[in-house]
Structure formats: C-alpha cells, structure tokens
C-alpha cells in the first residue's frame, strides 16, 4: 500500500530576514497552499530590499526530506539564483539542496534533494540589495522516528505530582512537562534500552530561557546548550553511540517538556505485503493496569504473591517500557528494594515481541518445528530460526544468521523486513528494536507460509522465538526485561525471584522479606445507596464522600474518582484521574 505524498510545509512556522512591507506579503503566505493564479502578488511572501535576504520554514520536528517545490507566479527576477538549504541549524549555513534558475514560462520548480534530514528549510538569495519573493513552498518528507518514545525516563528529584520524568517521553512536547526541585545540578535521563547511533537530540522547554544545560549520550557530551536559547532546541550529536541520554541543569532547572532522540539510518527496503494490525491491538495509552507499592508489610515473594492476589490482581507485571515508566512515576524517586511478579521456573519457548494485543487466542503458542526439533541440546542458549521450507530449527543463539524484523510502530501498517546481514540472535534482536520494533513473531500457518517465501533458498533466518526460564506470576508472556548490567546468578538451587533496586531489576532468593509491588486494573464500579435521609444535603454528601475515601485509602488506593447521580443531578469529587 503506497500513500500519496503529503506537503508538510503548512505544519511549520515561516519567518524571514526582514519585516514584510504589509500583511499581504507576510512569510506565512508562502505556505498557505494558495499559489494565487488570480492575484499572484497577494499570496506571495516578499522580503524587502536588503543584502542576502532569506525566508525560513521551521518544521518543529525532524524530517527526512525528499523533495522541495517552489512556485513563482510573479517577479521571477526576485527568485532567480536563490538557494534552498536544509538541515538542523537555525541559520543559512545548512547543506544546500538546489539553486533555483528561472526559465521563461515556468512557474513551479521541483527539486529532488535525495534524502536530507533536518528541521529548517531556508531559501536564500545571495547578493547585495536584493528582494526575495516566493509565492509557494511545498516540502515532502516524513517525520523521523523518535526512539525516546520507546524508552524509560528518570529524574533526579520530583517537585510536583503530575510532572514526573515520563512526561518528557510522552510525545506531547508543548502540553506536559517534567519538573524537578528548585536547586542546582538537577538532571533528567532517558534510557533508550539499547545503544543507538544518536545523531539528533531535540529538547522542548516550557519557555525561552537561558539554559546552558549539558546534554550527554552516555558519558560523552553532545553539546552544552547556548545561553538565551529558544524553547525548542535542536542539537546535532554527530552519531554518538550510547544508550542513556541525560540533560544536566547546572543552575535552577526550567520545566523540561520533551526529550526527542533521533538515530538516522537508512533502513533496508521492505518489498513484502503489509497488513493492518488486529482490531484489538492494545495501544498503551488505553490500557488500564496500575500499580500500588505495599511498603509496611515486608513479605517473601510467595507470600507477597498471595497478598496481591487476595486484595488486588497479582504481583506486578511490567510488560514494556510504558509500564516501567508508570512504575517509575509511582515510586517518585523512592527506589528501595521491592518484589515484582517475575520468577524463575522451567525453561519454555516464548516470543521476544511482548505486546499482549498482538496475539489472538492460541497464536502465541503456534509452532512449526521441523523433524527432531527442538533438539534440546544442552550447554547452549536456544533460539529459533525459519528455513526456506517453512520449518523451524532450534539453534545456538550465538550463530550468525539472516533475520526477520517486525515493524508496527505507532499503529501504522505492519511491515516485515528480511535483513540479509548475518548476526547472532541477540544482536539481531537489538538491531530490530533499534530500527523497527522487534524480531518477527509468526502467529499461524498462513503467516508461516508468507514468511517462508521471504527466506532465500538454503538459508535460515532468526525469528523472535527463544527459550527462557523467567515467567510472570499472572501468566503474562511478556519478554520485556530491565536487568541491571552484570547480573550474576550465584544463588545456587534456591528459588530465584526478581526485585527492583535502584531503578533496575535484580535477582535474589524468593525467601527474602521485602516490600512488594501489586497491580490492579482500574475499573468503574457502581454502588447504589438507599437512604431515608436527604441525600441532597451537602453535609450528608460530604460525610458519605469522606467515608468512601477513607475506605479506598485503607485499601492502599489513592488514584480514584468518586461521583454520584441523584434525581438527574450529578455531584462529584475528584482526587485524581480515573
């Protein structure tokens, strides 16, 4: 399925090097999608006479730009020789895409820029005492994938509820912000989960200010933000390889609203059919799992499991980075040790792609092993690959093979990609997570037949199936893990369970007593009250609300909303969102 190209220029903000002579020649006239054949001068942007005049378009996001179209319905002498520049800089020194040469009788000029990545488009007319006139600018390209949206965010401190670290990776750069305490040397960090080749970082602040913040990729400084920066700051990091992006504020920090991270890379072309995602695919924003930390009753893992099942749903399942961000927000930087619902059991085969909504009934258990497979060879880590015959093999994960990636980001059409570069299973999965979504899962015979046709003859390609001993208490199939680096299994034969310590997951004996994290599903409950007294009395209403609130808090739940309806009227009290 090929979508028609979209002109993204109207999404941006246009400015120019000098004030226009009137509102009719304002810079925005060049992106109003009205070239104006009837009255061309009324729909053109014009920069009055000056040296080296320029017109600028700020797209406000980082785009991969392929084509630029310039229309000149009048005044060709005011455009000939102009240069089109595209890049990350907020000046005219970005890379040049084209030079405009006017031809008699021609009004529109189309330029193929190859693949240029940037936020700013400049049209510059070099020379002394020139007037620049542009009637319409069209820009065609796609927004680059912001890989920070897949990560987990932390901050050095929290000042206000509702302004936690996860706000900097929620995809809403101008409406939600992270706020730390009003003291120097505060920081916000985004863990990208795997190392990326970081080329661009964009930061959105709540206001223009003097930042001088140090932005680092792992321990390497990308840039110290210049003082008197604008609220939207774009930094060219030049391809620093790293997993952690940290913004350090030496002085009192302003609210930081978004951290965007871009890893520009030419992905292999997909030549295979695309399919729509299932109708029940779970978008994280609509999922209703929430968490509660039981602090004052330390228990062993198994007793904590019983407690959570009796009072809530179960010990906490953390299925993905979004769930981990919810946990981080709940902890409010208080990361003392606590149990989660992960424990070590018998070895089983599972898929690396952990999104529950991706699999229909029984699809996570679909297998198409060849004769004698899986072979259960001891002493190796087991991963699965598919042959060109469609049969699966059980192999040593360290062997280099081609591999199949799945791309289903942001609710777009599902895409399957064969990467014909041999890697071991772990590196192949890391590649798929960086540039797509994950290694490919195969859910049914029809899908297996489709994938079979993608594998070259006499070759084998890794898929997302691997053997794992770690299981979630509630039976969830998620393969998401957030282990501390250098995790060592030194517990012998004792039962092993996972706990959170200093933001990462570690392993210890399940018999250890600790705080623990339960989860539950937010739901709407209706309670009918029959009473002889006057329910419209504000005093009675307040007494009932107070009793209900006390009962909810007694159960350890603080995130709730109580409302009631009576005789067509509704009274309500909100403590937090439902």
Automatic annotation (TrEMBL):
InterPro entries: C-type_lectin-like, C-type_lectin-like/link_sf, C-type_lectin_CS, CTDL_fold, FTP1, Galactose-bd-like_sf. The keyword Disulfide bond applies. It holds the Pfam family Lectin_C. Keywords: Calcium, Disulfide bond, Metal-binding. The keyword Metal-binding applies. Gene3D superfamilies: Galactose-binding domain-like, Mannose-Binding Protein A, subunit A. GO terms for molecular function: metal ion binding. It comes from the Eukaryota. Residues 1-45 are annotated as: Disordered. Residues 291-406, 418-519 form the C-type lectin domain. PANTHER family: C-TYPE LECTIN DOMAIN FAMILY 20 MEMBER A-RELATED, C-TYPE LECTIN DOMAIN FAMILY 4 MEMBER K-LIKE-RELATED. This is C-type lectin domain-containing protein.
């Amino acid at each position: 399925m090929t979508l028609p190209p979209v002109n993204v220029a109207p999404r941006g903000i246009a400015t120019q090097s000098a004030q226009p002579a009137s509102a009719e020649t304002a810079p925005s006239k060049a992106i109003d999608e009205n070239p104006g054949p009837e009255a061309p001068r009324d729909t053109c942007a014009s920069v009055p006479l000056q040296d080296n005049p320029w017109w600028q378009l700020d797209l406000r996001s980082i785009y991969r730009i392929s084509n630029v179209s310039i229309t000149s319905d009048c005044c060709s002498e005011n455009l000939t020789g102009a240069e089109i520049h595209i890049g990350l800089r907020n000046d005219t020194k970005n890379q040049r895409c084209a030079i405009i040469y006017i031809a008699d009788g021609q009004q529109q000029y189309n330029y193929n820029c190859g693949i240029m990545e940037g936020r700013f488009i400049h049209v510059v007319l070099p020379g002394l005492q020139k007037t620049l006139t542009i009637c319409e600018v069209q820009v065609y390209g796609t927004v680059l994938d912001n890989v920070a949206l897949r990560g987990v965010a932390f901050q050095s401190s929290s000042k206000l509820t509702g302004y936690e670290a996860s706000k900097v990776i929620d995809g809403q750069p101008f409406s939600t912000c992270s706020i730390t305490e009003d003291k120097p040397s505060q920081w916000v960090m985004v863990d990208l989960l795997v190392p990326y080749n970081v080329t661009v970082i964009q930061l959105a602040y709540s206001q223009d200010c003097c930042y001088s913040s140090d932005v680092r990729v792992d321990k390497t400084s990308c840039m110290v933000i210049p003082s008197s920066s604008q609220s939207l700051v774009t930094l060219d990091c030049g391809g620093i390889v790293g997993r952690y992006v940290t913004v350090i504020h030496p002085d009192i920090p302003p609210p930081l609203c978004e951290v965007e991270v871009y890893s520009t890379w030419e992905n292999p072309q997909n030549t295979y059919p695309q399919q729509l995602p299932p109708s029940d695919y779970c978008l994280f924003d609509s999922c209703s799992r929430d968490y509660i930390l039981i602090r004052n009753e330390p228990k062993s893992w198994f007793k904590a499991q019983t407690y959570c099942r009796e009072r809530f749903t179960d010990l906490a399942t953390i299925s993905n980075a979004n769930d981990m961000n919810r946990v981080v927000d709940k902890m409010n930087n208080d990361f003392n040790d606590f149990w989660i619902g992960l424990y070590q059991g018998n070895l089983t085969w599972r898929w690396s792609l952990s999104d529950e909504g991706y699999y229909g009934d029984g699809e996570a258990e679909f297998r198409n092993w060849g004769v004698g497979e899986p072979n259960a060879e001891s002493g190796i880590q087991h991963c699965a690959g598919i042959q060109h015959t469609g049969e699966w093999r059980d192999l040593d994960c360290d062997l280099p093979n081609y591999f199949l990636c799945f791309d289903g980001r942001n609710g777009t059409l599902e895409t399957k990609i064969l990467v014909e570069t041999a890697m071991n299973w772990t590196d192949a999965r890391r590649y798929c997570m960086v540039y797509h979504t994950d290694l490919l899962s195969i859910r049914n015979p029809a899908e297996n037949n489709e994938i079979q046709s993608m594998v070259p003859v006499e070759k084998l390609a890794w898929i997302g199936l691997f053997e794992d001993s770690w299981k979630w208490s509630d039976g969830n199939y998620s393969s998401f893990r957030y282990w501390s680096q250098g995790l060592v299994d030194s517990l012998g034969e004792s039962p092993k369970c996972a706990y959170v310590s200093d933001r990462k997951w570690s392993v210890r004996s399940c018999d250890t007593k600790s705080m623990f994290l339960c989860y539950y599903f937010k739901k709407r409950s209706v309670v009918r009250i029959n009473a002889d007294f006057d329910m419209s009395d504000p005093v009675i209403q307040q007494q009932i609300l107070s009793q209900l609130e006390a009962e909810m808090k007694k159960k350890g739940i603080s995130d709730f909303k109580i409302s009631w309806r009576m005789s067509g009227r509704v009274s309500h009290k909100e403590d937090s969102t439902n």
